[in-house]
Write a structure and sequence with these properties.
The protein is mostly beta strands. It has two domains: 96 residues, Alpha-Beta Plaits; 47 residues, SH3 type barrels, CATH 2.30.30. It is built from two helices and 14 strands; from the N terminus they run βαββββββββαβββββ.
Amino acid sequence: MNWIAIYTRSRHECTVARQLQKMGYEVFVPMRRELHQWSDRKHFVNVPLIPSYVFIKIQLNLYYRIYEVSGVVRIIMFNGRIAIIKEEEIEMLRKVENCKKLELVSTEDFKKNDKVEIVNGKFIGLRGSVVNIRDSRKVGIIIEEIGYTIIVDKEDIQLIQKRIEVDRTV
């Protein structure tokens, strides 16, 4: 039996995991606590540490059964083969999941002129363009509505429109 990774539809990790458990498989969805804010309250919720990923322990020759589950998009492949996750890597994810303080690692690679929206903090809802990337955690954004450039954490913004690079060497 090997651990493999499944890519799911957005926000279907727990649903897929429950269905696979009912089928008798050992599954793992690493979670983290995140503070969500609504207009009238704040509340901690559990969200997947790696969005859209479910890990399952399965015999590789039975992988096709995974596609019977609603919400499964594909099995993660590497070099044309099913990517096998080592037991040590699963254990490391379990340890990370149990950490009290966890720095969120952004996979987003912001570039100059990307259109972004601030999703946390005082300036929530404002949109702007990336003008400066200070270090691995801070991004400078020009907010057209107020005419200021502000520095925010990467975790507090989300990408709206990616800058498109045009090859002008033709």
